[in-house]
Amino acid sequence: MIPLRIKIQNLGAIPQADIDLTSVGLCSLVGPNGAGKSTALTWAPLFALYGETKNGCSVDDLVRRGTTEMAVEFDFEHHGDTYKVLRTRSTKGRGKSTLELQKQAGDIWVSESGASIAETQEKINRLLGLDANTMVSSSMILQGKSGEFTAKSKGERKAILAQILQLDQYGDLQEKARAKAAVLKAEIDKVNNQIEVLNGRLTGMEETEADYQAAKVELDILAAAVAIDEIELQKADAELARVNARVEQIDKLFAEADTIRADVIRKTQDRDGYLKRIESAKKILDQESEITARVAEHEQVKESITVLKTKQQRYGQVLSELSKAKTDMLEVDAAVAKVASQILSVKTLLTNTETLKTAAAEYDLLADKLTKLDQLHSQYVELGRQKAETNAKLLVAKNELTSKQNKLKMQIENCAVAATMLQDCECVDIEKANCKFLANAKQASADQVQFQADLDALKSDDVDMYADELLLMDEQIQTLGYSPEEHSKSRTESMRLKPLADQYAQLSGKTELLVTLSETEKGHWERKSSLEAKVAELQAEHDSLLKELSGLSAMQDKLQRLEIWVNLQQQIPAAREILNTTQQLADRLGTEITAGTTKADELTEEYLSTVSGVKDEQKTAQERSEELRRGVTLKRGQENALHAKIGALETKIADMQMAGEERKRLVAELEPQTKKLVRWQTLVKAFGKDGIPALIIENAVPELERIANEILGQMSAGKHHLRFETQRELKSREGVAEALDIIVGDWSGERPYETFSGGEQLRIDLAIRFALSELLARRAGSKVEWVVIDEALSNQDAKHRQMVVDAIKNVADRFKKVIVITHDPELMDAFGQSIQFSIKEDNTREVMVA
């Protein structure tokens, strides 16, 4: 990867910067402290590519103070293509981040971003093949972190070296090979399982073929027997058909006789019907004169009934009117009784006028008294409530006073117990004693006096106040003069007098009411007299009609009995016609009945004379045919069973043959698959940590040592050299641990890197870091071809600083871009090219490439 351009907006202290690195090779980046040199050339690319932040701060902390929008745009070349990464951050609201990956295609930029920031980040990581940690360790020597690689633990160093050497791809290859091997193993296991199933299907093949041949022989024998039985069955069926034809002829004689007898029965029934009709016609004609008289009587009765039915309708109307009149009379009687009761009540009230007047006056006086008693009751209840509250407060105050008294008494008792030590001690001068126990006893004696004084003086103003309030309330209750008994008695008397007072108030209109009620009573009596006359009239008409209608039911019964004679009169013409025509038909049917009976008897006699012998012959022929048919059916069933058995055996044999062919095919298929599995399993081992990656590291470490020693020799004038150890023995158990120890030697011998001074460690760090970057650039498919060195020369003396500068120049042609960041103006022209980073008056950054 080769950086081409960095554009910055509001990153850290940089409000705006545009750095074009297209023409830069080896150069120094010079500018004052705080100008943002390190931010622009190290943290800006790291933030754009990986979202990394400086010194572990949050991404919002990178946004320049006083602004809300930050953006870094980083253009770079990678494997011949040009890419652009744009990462932004907004602190508005909840905050928002964006990430865009673009690829240049001619004059336009084409988006290569994913659907989310995480997807886009994954694409950038896959494109570069490096994470942020590896990029920093191999291509950036940050300010104060020149030992970014050497400061890692021994295990981490080897992991970083493995990633620089792109050994992680072998992990992917191992997983792919393992997946391929697993798929092949599953396929082979599947084929082996299929072969096992096929072996089961091939078991017993010889026995199956023997059963098949035996079944075919048995079938041939059975087929011959069936053919013989079928010939015999055909003969028996022919004989049965002949006998059945003879039986059918005989049965026709019997059927013909039955048909003739049925016809005789039908004709007999017809003749009997004709004779009955003739007899009925004679009876009707014999009663012709009586029928005529009865019909005349029927007409007379019918007319009488018509007249009575008219009167019957009037009877219903009279009955309804009579019922209504009686109902009206009952209503009038009820009204008369009601008015009489009201008149009596009014007269009674008018008689008790003085009594009611006295009761009304007493009620008014009592009402005034109750009003005053209600007011006194309210005051009485309120004083009772206040007295209860004051009583409760008095009880609380007394409890508090008692509690304080008990506490002081307990303190006095405790002090008395402690003070007894003064009486029991043997000190000569108690006042001068320094013993802690005696000092406590003296203090207790003094406290006892004070507590007793407090107890004697203890009193409660609240107790006295609440007691005085209770006495005052008792006096107020007595002053009220309220008596609950008198109040209750007055209320009861008021309730008794109220109805009487209400009656007195209503007396003013009672005289007029009495006149009105008297007139109403008179009207009711007049209506009652009118209704009584109407009821008498209707009752007389009712009784007359009831008497006339008493014979209607008997006349209706008689009319119904005479209806039969009307029907007989209507049948007289038909009876004469029957006598003229039906007798001839009956005579002809009698002749046909006699002839039919004779013919049927002759056919029956012929049937009975021949049927017995023919039926026996038919039974014998039928039994013979059925016996032969059962035998043929049984053998046919056996034949079908054998056919089914042979078919099943043929299917089984065919299935076994197919299974055998399938087994041969699977066995042939299995051999190359097994060879492939062995190859993939070999690749799994080869791609493992102990395989190709281990060989690559073992081969890369000598190359890394050689490059690092070349650069370190230039920086130290040949004083130092180094070597790497990739494994070390374990102390706790047998075996070795994977690591990358750095052993440095000088003229006094070899010792670990960690034991050298700071200046010496810096030169070693730079040598290893340059070696790592060059190693990465030399390997096929290299990812990073630029190095940034940030303030790495500040702690070197003049002699070694020039050595480091010369070493950087010597290794610069191994990278496309080498940028040395420094605030020392003396180093501005040390590398031929320089980038001057300055702060303008508006706080923007001016970048000049020279």
Automatic annotation (TrEMBL):
Residues that span the membrane, as ranges: none
Pfam families attached to this UniProt entry: AAA_23, SbcC_Walker_B
Coiled coil: 174-253, 528-555
Record domain Rad50/SbcC-type AAA: where: 5-199
Keyword terms of this UniProt record: Coiled coil
Example GO molecular function: ATP hydrolysis activity
Family statement: Belongs to the SMC family. SbcC subfamily.
PANTHER family: ABC TRANSPORTER ABCH.3
Subunit-structure text: Heterodimer of SbcC and SbcD.
Stated name of the protein: Nuclease SbcCD subunit C
Originating organism: Acetonema longum DSM 6540
